[in-house]
Amino acid sequence: MWDYTDKVREHFLNPRNVGEVENPDGIGEVGSIACGDALKLTFRLGDDKKIAEAKFKTFGCASAIASSSALTEMIIGKTLEEAENISNENIAEFLGGLPKEKIHCSVMGQEALEKAIAYYRGEPEKVLEGEIVCHCFNVTDVDIQRAVKEKGLKTLEDVTGYLKAGGGCGNCHEEISNIIKASQGISIMEPKKPAAGLTNLQKIRKIEETLEIEIKPALMRDGGNIELVDVDGNRVLVRLQGACATCSRSRITLKDHVEARLRTLVAHDLVVEEA
């Protein structure tokens, strides 16, 4: 189970500035609901050209909610020049730290702020450098190479935790791994040492924790819920409840949200099915 600070829990359970600013000066949207993480940040400037109001809407986990809430608190009262110096590390520090698997939540906050400020200034959207590797989150090979070298990322899990790349459908995992190796000067043909796998009991516990902390809160906000029925090898059998049980998009929820999160945070080969 991830070790969340009291401040993360506080901003998750009692998030500040939820919603959307009316007639905003700045709008920044990042992420993808289909892939399980999305954030919209809006702000309004006062007569003194400082941020007078900031609000957020997010679809994501506890860390995403807490990071977004913290960001709004951090930027209110600041000029745009002061706000744009806020980094994802600053957001994590404000919360007393985040698990490394959740750093991408603070990165999304920083990116949403950058987009909102660019919107206010009338700046065109940044042209992506390189070729897109992760289409779920628009992450390029250049983004991955830079993060590997500057942040010391060593594994696919590190990259997913920091950039969110690979956290959706999973089709880009092999390409991300190859980019990591190439950036580290390792031959792509070099055999990979087998990693120690989870025991079946460890896997079940990890799945239970992920459902409780990462998935259930988002579903419950929309009147739904999910129950773990069984784990059979790499098959995860679940039962959707409440609004989710009768929703016409339940299959999309299972594949694009539940399965994607479990593949990212537990094991890449898990298959989620409705019991």
TrEMBL record:
NIF system FeS cluster assembly NifU N-terminal domain sequence ranges: 4-124
Essential cofactor(s): [2Fe-2S] cluster; Fe cation
GO biological process, one term: iron-sulfur cluster assembly
Assigned keywords, A-Z: 2Fe-2S, Iron, Iron-sulfur, Metal-binding, Nitrogen fixation
Binding site for [2Fe-2S] cluster: 134, 136, 169, 172
PANTHER family: IRON-SULFUR CLUSTER ASSEMBLY ENZYME NIFU HOMOLOG
Protein's name according to its UniProt entry: Nitrogen fixation protein NifU
Species annotation: Desulfobotulus alkaliphilus
